[in-house]
Amino acid sequence: MTKAGFKMLATGWYGIDQHRIDKFMMLVRRYLRGSLRCLLRCKWSIDSCNSYAEMLSAEDGTVY
């Protein structure tokens, strides 16, 4: 899972209407689950987890 995907989800959140919020949240949950599965495949290595945490907390607005 990439930083670009999380940025897309973060920017898409503001343009969503109330009728599509459930589908959008399902997409967010699936994307998050996929990214956690990638970490599982890496056997939760410290380097992978640190890279993932840095990506999520980047100051460029990803999830900061």
Which features characterize this protein?
single chain; 64 residues; mainly alpha; 3 helices; 66% helix
Account of the protein in words:
- The protein has 64 residues and is mainly alpha-helical.
- It has a domain at 1-9 and 26-57.
- Helices cover 66% and strands 0% of the residues.
- The chain has three helices and no strands.
- It has helices spanning 3-12, 21-41, 46-56.
- The longest helix is centred in the middle third of the chain and has 21 residues, at 21-41.
- The chain is flat and about 40 Å long.
- The two termini are 17 Å apart.
- The model has no long low-confidence stretch (mean pLDDT 87).
What is shown here, in short?
Keywords: Nucleus. By secondary structure, this protein is mainly alpha-helical. It is built from three helices and no strands.
Detail the topology: elements first, then pairings.
Blueprint lengths: L2 H10 L8 H21 L4 H11 L8
The backbone outline, from C-alpha atoms, is flat
Q: Rounded to an integer, what's the Rg over CA atoms?
A: 13 Å
Strands, count: 0
Query: Approximately how much beta-strand content do the residues carry?
Result: under 5%
The H/E string reads: HHH
Helical fraction equals 55-70%
Q: Report the mean per-residue pLDDT as an integer.
A: 87
Distance between the terminal alpha carbons, to the nearest Å? 17 Å
Question: Biggest sheet, open or closed, and with what strands and sense?
Answer: none
Oligomer: single chain
Q: Give the class from helix and strand content and strand pairing.
A: mainly alpha
Unreliable sequence segments: none
Number of helices: 3
Keywords: Nucleus
GO biological process, one term: rRNA processing
Subcellular location: Nucleus
Pfam families: Nop52
